[in-house]
Amino acid sequence: MSKWNFYTSKEIKPEGWLRRQLEIQAEGLSGNLHKIWPDIRDSAWIGGDREGWERVPYWLDGFIPLAYLLENEEMIETVKKYIDSILSMQKSSGWICPCKETEIPKYDTWAVQLICKTLKVYYDCSGDERIPDVIYRVLRNYYELIKTGKITLSGWGKYRWFETFISLNFLYERYHEDWIRDLAHFIKDQGFDYNAVTESWKKPSHNWLRKTHIVNIVMMLKSEAVSHELLGEEYTDNAERLRVILDKYNGTAFDGFTGDEVLSGIDPTRGTECCAIVEQMYSYEEMFAHTGDNKWAERLEVLGFNALPATLSEDMWTHQYVQQVNQVACQKTMIMAPWSTNGPYAHTFGLEPNFGCCTANFNQGWPKLALSAFMHKDNTIINALMIPSFLKTESATIRLETDYPFKNRMHYYIDAERDFSFVVRIPSFAKSLVVNGENRQSGDLELEIKKGKTEIELEFSAQPFLKKRPNDLHVLQMGSLLFSVPIDYDKQMREYTKKGVERKFPYCDYQFIPKTPWNYGYAGADFEVQYNEIGETPFSQKNPPVTVKAKMQQIDWGLKFPYKSVCRKTPRSTKPVSAVQEIALCPYGCARLRMTEMPLLKK
Predict the structure, then answer these.
(1) Which helix (H) or strand (E) holds 496?
(2) pLDDT at 11
(3) What are phi and psi of 424, to 5 degrees?
(4) What is the pTM of this model?
(5) What is the side-by-side strand order in the sheet with 420-424?
(6) What does the pLDDT average to over 68-74?
(7) Integer Cα distance of 252 and 273 in angstroms
(8) How many CB atoms sit inside 10 A of residue 525's CB?
(9) Which residues, other chains included, contact 162 with Cβ-Cβ below 8 Å and sequence gap of 6+?
(10) Is the peptide bond preceding residue 405 cis, with omega within 30 degrees of 0?
(11) CA 548 → CA 326, 466, 544, distances in Å?
(12) Which of 117, 231, 307, 438 has CA 20 to 30 A from 461's CA?
């Protein structure tokens, strides 16, 4: 296998539309959560009396790289304040989580796994030399507690055991001590084996179970990739076998899975949890880095350019708990919500529209995607994701100017201090690849860069096409982008206080009420692409960077009984009830209300 190494936020900087996307995130909820949300502002992790388990580590996991990528001094000072407070609470034994000594035997050590992962992120961004020793003492204590039987993996920690390997690998690279390998084996042996429960993934259940919990499952996909080397095991690409099962019975158009808490079947009106999107992206980032297998990077793009922006409001002050592929309204549903175990507001936009995990955890999505643009090994640099970025290392600087994925043109400006090998990962869908004016075979571009200045202009085409989906539906796809019928809507704002937590503008709750038709099918498969300028809001519904015109007709689709704002899984009838209309479909990630999976109507 070909293993790639990540660069740090000191070396990679976002540019173009990607930088603007991170700036919006910093100006929105991510950059202000510590000021307004008691679970972060008054957390037990910093000596307060609010939640002292996963929420601060979750938030820091995204807030830290966001701060350092943008070189935002105010945010960096906030990072240091939180990290200093967390480190000051570490016991002489190494224990770091904010709980009493007597509570440790029953404590869910998912928080131990998560804080170590987050501290590694901080070390990568800051270079703070205190951190390796802190993680060493935390995990050495974890080892002693497990070895002596004082604790065993249980709860979330049992189902997320593989997350520990992010920090275990980090430690072993520095210390090469046998106890680190022993702890790796203890954790896997006590962790949950998802291979044994794949039958339970094949039929939707309304039972709240960790073995079918969507976030656990997408985290799990990276388990073999991140653990096999330390465990001394052969890599078998088990994730692909499991992904095929998940996709067959729970797949979505955006290469994720339905999971409105637990796996929810093949239905474009079922939800996918926000946490699941960012965690599946993180899994694919790590899997590409560990395996060098292009399929994980390509699937990462589809998630990152579609599902991630779609689940966040354009100003990123609010988010959904679950998003729908066919989302015709974001309104409170009946008490018996159309989800597995979520509440009636789960798909509305707000501060905390269901559980607060997503409020803290969505922050990692964009920053970690930005950090995955370039990777390296030995004397080779790879451009893994063709997103606008600037890389500065001791041996070279590379500036990538591009509007990808909205346009398929890339311009690289390279200034090398010495010779090196340069690889550009070319997506499998790319056609008619042209490099510096010359036609090239598709496939990864591999170049030997000489000392001095080099420019590379690269362009390829991607044609819009209808991709088949279950239930005789189709999704329009072009490259890594999906396209949807955008539905205009009115926003209904709701400000209130619940359990001492204020919801007020701009982080209040919003319901989106449709005001244009959504009941469409494709009247043909001829499409016209129109490219636009990228505005101040890259994923804007009113000003999308690219649209695809399609001929469509309205049909008798109908609503899912007994709901008034959820469409049926499939249309009641595919007989046209209108003349042919030409509609400009926009990228899925731009449309907050949308129809995405639709039938191809028979002539």
Answers:
(1) strand 496-498
(2) 98
(3) -115, 120
(4) 0.98
(5) 5-6, 374-377, 380-383, 420-424, 445-449
(6) 98
(7) 12
(8) 13
(9) 188, 191, 219, 220, 222, 223, 226, 227
(10) yes
(11) 18, 12, 10
(12) 307
pLDDT > 70: percent of the chain: 100
CB 294 within 8 A of CB 4: no
Q: What is the pLDDT of residues 271-285, one digit of tens each?
A: 999 999 999 999 999
228 has pLDDT over 90: yes
- 3-state SS track over 255-300: CCECEECEECCCCCCCEEEHHHHHHHHHHHHHHHHHHCCHHHHHHH
Per the prediction, the chain carries an average pLDDT of: 97
The C-alpha R_g of the chain, in whole angstroms, comes to 24
At 261, list the tokens. 């808490």
Task: Give yes or no for a contact between 436 and 456, defined as CB atoms under 8 angstroms apart.
Answer: yes
Provide the Cα torsion 526, 532, 537, 541; round to 10°.
-30
**Region at 246 (left for phi over 0; alpha for psi -120 to 50; beta for the rest):** alpha
Cβ proximity of 291 and 3 under 8 Å: yes
Which residue matches tokens 């593989």?
A: 162
Q: Enumerate the β-bridge partners of residue 468.
A: 474
pLDDT of residue 558: 97
Structure tokens at 575: 């007989």
Cβ–Cβ < 8 Å for 59, 33 = yes
Provide the pLDDT for residue 334.
Answer: 80
Mean pLDDT of 507-517: 98
- 471, two tokens: 């239930």
Please report the pLDDT score of residue 41 as a whole number: 97
Residue 31 CB contacts under 8 Å (≥ 6 apart), including other chains: 25, 63, 66, 72, 75
Among residues 158, 166, 159, 160, the alpha carbon closest in space to that of 139 is found at 166
Q: What angle do CA 198, 271, 471 make, to 5 degrees?
A: 75
Confidence label for 603 from pLDDT (cuts 50, 70 and 90): low
Helix (H) or strand (E) holding 144, with range, is helix 131-147
What span, in angstroms and rounded, lies between the C-alpha atoms of 385 and 366? 13
How far apart (Å, rounded) are the C-alpha atoms in residues 345 and 474?
A: 28
Q: Mapping DSSP to helix (H, G, I), strand (E, B) and coil, where does residue 118 land? A: helix
